[in-house]
Every structure is written in structure tokens, then in C-alpha cells.
Amino acid sequence: MNIHVLGYWGAYPEAGEATTGLLVQTDTANVLVDCGSGVLSQLFKVCQFRDLTAVIITHHHHDHAADLGVLSYTALIHRQMGTRKEKLPVYMPSGSPVEQALEREPLIQLQRITDTSRIDIGGIDITFARTQHPVYCLAVRMTYKGRTFVFSADSSLCPNLTQIARDADLFLCEANMYDGQEDTAKHAGHLTAGQAGALAREAGVKKLALTHYPHHGNLDDLIRQASAAFHGPVERVHTLKILQV
Ligand SMILES: [Zn+2]
Ligand SMILES: [Zn+2]
Q1: pLDDT (tens digit, 9 = 90+) per residue, 88-142?
Q2: Which one of 66, 137, 140, 243 has the fewest beta carbons within 10 angstroms of its own beta carbon?
Q3: Fold for domain 2-244?
Q4: Which ligand approaches the C-alpha of residue 64 most closely?
Q5: Which residues surround ligand 1, an ion (CB under 5 A)?
Q6: What average pLDDT does the chain have?
């Protein structure tokens, strides 16, 4: 699997960039995971709408789902132009503010998911775990040809997250806070970089990458703080970086 980082900012995108969005690419599938602000603009640099296999949304905070309404317009235009005929499955928990718009678009096939769902997209085995966050939020585990990628989505420390990340080849974990902000992180449903590192160590993951960055401080400190707790390789991401799993 190649994981294309389309966006990595928490809350809002910095100039020319995007909030959370990933393209998980195999030899047979292109799966968009989260569709935050600015994500479609980045996505179309590496994958056209007609080539998108499915979409997964972890939760309905705007920094993970702001472009969903625009995705329904994308489907509308491509349907009118006749440039895509197959329905696009969109897997997400219920409660989206644009649910009706998605349901009305014939080219989109809405599928509700919960933490007990298990789906197969082009041979990728996908399971979920409920995280600790102010709204219903799902971490995602994807296994393809014996390799496993886990994305934390948004969460504060919780046993479910450690469990779903177990032995992953790559764990992409949110680190929205710096060490020392543990109380704020717990209250907001996020992790400090040190907590992300400790969680990755406890779960026995082989490689850690951090995402969902804050808009203040020195982002290199996130890597240092996570590395101190994890003791393994920790990657900082940037727009269109490709993480190989
Ligand atoms: Zn978020
Ligand atoms: Zn969130």
C-alpha cells in the first residue's frame, strides 16, 4: 500500500494545504480516507474522480469532512458529463450535516459504518475501533497482502486505539498537542506527541508517523517528543508525501 498524505493540519488548512485526508493506494484500489478542507484539490493531483474506488470518513468534524458536500457536487458534474458511471461507495458513521445531499446524489452510495463493521475494498480488509473523542469517531485498520496500516483518526488515550494499532507495519497517529499539554489533550479528545509515541510502543507498531498538526510551536518538537517515547522510526508528514506500507 502507498499512503499519499493529502492533508495533515488540525482544525484548518495553512495556505495551499489541507486538513486531514489520505489516499490509500494499492495496485487495484484508490481509497480516500477522510475528506477535510482542501483535500479534494490535493487528491486530484494524484487520483482523478473516475479512478476513486471508495471513501471512508472517520468522523464528522469539519477538519475531516468539510469537502464532503463538494464531493457530492463532483459526483453530480461527472455524472452529467458522463465521465463516471459506477457508483462511489462512501462509508461513514451516521450524523453527517451533508447526509441528505450525499443521499440525493445517484452516483454516491452511502454506507453507514460503526466500530463493529468489517468491509472489503478491492481486497483490503478493513476494521474499525471507536476512539475517545467528543463525537463518534472511528480509527481504521487496513490490511492488504499481509501488510497493515492503521490510522488513529482523532482520539485521546484509550485502550481501543492501542488494540487496533497492535503490530501495525505503519501507524499514522494524530499528535495535535505538545508534551506538557496532557490535560488539554484529554479534554479535547486529542493526543500529545509523547502519548502518541508511548501508545505506538505499547502497541508494538513497527513504524510511526505523526499527523493532525497544531498551528503553533515547533513541529519538529512533535517528532522529538514522540521519538523519546517510541524508540523506533517516527516520520513527519508533508503534503503529497508517500508513506509505503
Ligand atoms: Zn481533527
Ligand atoms: Zn475531530
Answers
A1: 999 999 999 999 999 999 999 999 999 999 999 999 999 999 999 999 999 999 9
A2: 243
A3: Metallo-beta-lactamase; Chain A (3.60.15)
A4: 1
A5: 63, 154
A6: 98
Q: 190 C-alpha vs ligand 2 centroid, how far in Å?
A: 8
Question: What is the Cα–Cα distance from 52 to 19, expressed in whole angstroms?
Answer: 19
Cβ atoms of 153 and 130 closer than 8 Å: no
Which pLDDT score, from 0 to 100, does residue 118 have?
98
Ligand that comes closest to the CA of residue 135: 2
Count CB atoms within 10 A of the CB of residue 136: 15
Which residues are in the CB-under-5-Å shell of ion ligand 2? 61, 154
Over residues 142-154, the mean pLDDT reads 98
- Separation of 78 CA from ligand 1 center, angstroms? 29
> Ligand nearest 59 Cα, by number?
2
